[in-house]
Amino acid sequence: MNPFWQRRGPAALTAVAATALCLAGTTPTSAAGTQGKAAETPWVVSLGDSFISGEAGRWAGNSNVSADGYARTDRAFDPATEVTDPHRVYGTSYDDRCNRSDSAEVNSSPVGGRRVNLACSGATSTAILLPEHGGGPFKGEPSQARQLTDAVTGHPVRAVVVSVGGNDLGFEGVITTCAKNFVTPIGATPCAPALASQVRDRLPAMRTAAVKALGDVTTAMKRAGHPKGSYRLILQSYPSPLPDGARVRYPGEKYDRLSQGGCPFFDKDLTWAHDELVPEISTALAAAARTAGAEFLDLSRPTSGRQAAPANGCAS
C-alpha cells in the first residue's frame, strides 16, 4: 500500500507501529534456532506491504515547497550536497521500489537481536504466499514466505509480524477516489455513499486472503525448523490516516481546504474513513488472525489525534 497520505508526517505512525515488535519481548525460541547458537539473540522478522516496509519513513514532516529537500523534511535529501537520493533511506531496496526504510517499525523497535525486513511496498497477500500456492515473484523478488524460510533457517526467531490486506482491499484506490471527488470541478460529492457498500463487500475476500498468507508464513517457518508456538506470529491492522470530520482545520468544505491545507476530503468522507472504514478493516483482520491462530495487534485507534493528516493540514 502506497497511498499519497503516506508521503508526509510518518513519525506518529512509525512510533505506534513499533509497538508490535515491543509486544514480542518474551517468547520461546525453536530448538533448531538454539542448537549451536545459544548466544544468538532471537530475530524479529516483518513481512507484508508498505506500511510495515517503511515506505513512509522517507518523510520527517510536511512541506509544499520542493526547494531544499521540501524544507528538509525529505530524509533522502543531503543538505551537504543538495542531492536527493532515496537510497539514503531505503538502501538497495529502492532499486526495485520495495522501499524498506531505515525507520521501518522492525528497525525502530527497541527489541534486541537482528531485525529482518522482507516486506515490500505495494504487496498484496499473493506476494507473501509460497510458490506452490500461487506466490510468484513480486517486483523481481521471490515470494516473502520463501524468503522467510531461507532467512531464518538455523537462527532463533522471536516473532514474525505481518501487515497485509490493505492492497487486497484496494484501500489506496478508495482514498484516492475520495480525494478526486473533492476536486471535481462540477457536481463534487462525497465518496462514502457509493463506496461504503462496495468496500464492505470486499472485506470477506480480504479476510480469506490474509488467512492464507498467515498459513503460508506458518508453513515457511516450519520448513525452517520453527514449529508453531516456538515464536510469535502477529498480524497487525492499519491506523486511520485521516481524522474525523469534526477535527478538520479548514471548515466549510471549500476549496481552500485543499489549496491552503492540502486536505482534499469532504467531512462525510473523513468521518466515514475514520469511524467506519478503518475499524471494519481491523475487525476483518482480527477475524483472520483468530482463524490462522495468530496474535492480533489493533492499530486502528492508537494514533487518534496524531494521524499523518495533521501534517497534511486536515486536522486542527
Task: Describe this entry's structure for a reader.
The protein has helices spanning 11-17, 19-22, 31-34, 50-53, 67-72, 87-90, 105-108, 144-152, 166-169, 171-183, 192-223, 256-259, 267-292, 309-312, and strands at residues 43-48, 77-78, 83-84, 115-117, 157-163, 232-236, 295-297. 50% of the residues are buried. Helices cover 40% and strands 9% of the residues. The model is unreliable at 1-13, 30-37 and 306-311 (pLDDT under 50). Helix 8 (144-152) runs parallel beside helix 11 (192-223) and helix 11 runs parallel beside helix 13. With 316 residues, it is α/β, with parallel strands linked by helices. The strands form two sheets. It has a five-stranded parallel beta sheet. It is built from 14 helices and seven strands.
